[in-house]
Amino acid sequence: MSRNLTANEQASFDARVKAAYEMGGMLRATVEIADNIVGSTHRFHKIGKGMATRRIDQTDVIPMNITHGNATATLEDWNAAEYTGIFNQQKVPYKEQDKLATIIANAIGRREDQLIIDALDAAATALTVDTDVGGVGTGLNTAKCRRARRLLNEKGVPKAKGERCFLISSEGMEQLLGDGDANTVDKNVIKALYDGEISHWVGFDFIEVEERDEGGLPKASNDRTNFAYHKASTGLAVGLNMRTEVNYIPVKTSYLANGIFSAGSVAIDAEGIVEVTTTEA
User: Fold this and answer.
1) Whole-model pTM?
2) Contacts of 136 (CB under 8 A, 6+ apart)
3) What's the pLDDT tens digit per position in 10-39?
């Protein structure tokens, strides 16, 4: 192997990582995106509600005094790096470079997801569904989903299809699949038991988040925190979209493949976020 990758080899590796990355991250499409950010922070702006007042003859109009605010996301820099040795490439029955592309992409994708999950968890929200809704100390059920829907509706959160998301754990999906309302064909047009998952229910798109070394959905003892939220409630500011570098390191007789990513996430409007607590074994 050449000691220096050609431009074509570099481009080939980079393209494979980007294709895999699009499959790795799950949550980017569920939040507001600010791309190509310059600087270490980004402010997502928020404008408050207004209320019309009745007009009275010969009196001044009354301003609505709409409030303005912002939520600041602090960008963090991340690497996903691994060495690929010249000698090792002759000892394995696969192209290590291809495998590394997938691993790097998935690592960056999970980290991006975790930034969003952490922002949801940090939101100062009073919209909560406790574990006793639908039964004392119960797991995820239709009653909790309905309560989350009601709480968002009471705040006037938009109900457009595809803009409300519900993050649940794998055990939460198992619990919901066992719910009679969710898995009955008469009540749910989606064949939940046939497909082994529920992708949409009571106005939410469901995304199952597996157990992750990055943290995943918060869990304290047997209490799992799930999140139901609207797309506009949370923002992701991206300073550097994931890209790769491949450099030869002579002292290690290896190539260093590195995924680079810089981003930050923040809750923009806590009224669009519901924390749903469930009991898990």
Assistant:
1) 0.87
2) none
3) 777 777 776 665 556 899 999 999 999 999
Asked whether residue 243 falls in the same domain as residue 221, the answer is no
What the block records as the tokens of 125 is: 């929200």
Other CB atoms closer than 10 Å to residue 175's CB: what's the count?
21
* CATH code where residue 85 lies: 3.30.2400.20
Helix 7-24 vs helix 96-122: crossing angle, to nearest 10: 40
Question: How far is it, in rounded angstroms, from Cα 61 to Cα 72?
Answer: 34
Closest CA relative to residue 200, chosen from 233, 241, 159, 235: 159
Domain that holds residue 23: 7-47+68-120+235-264
- In this prediction, residue 1 carries a pLDDT of 44
Tokens 């006037």, residue located = 156
- Listed residue (272, 267, 247) closest to 259, CA to CA: 247
SS3 content of the chain, % helix, strand, coil (to 5): 30, 30, 35
Contacts 24+ apart (CB under 8 A), 85-92: 85/252, 85/253, 85/254, 85/255, 86/1, 86/253, 86/254, 86/255, 87/253, 89/1
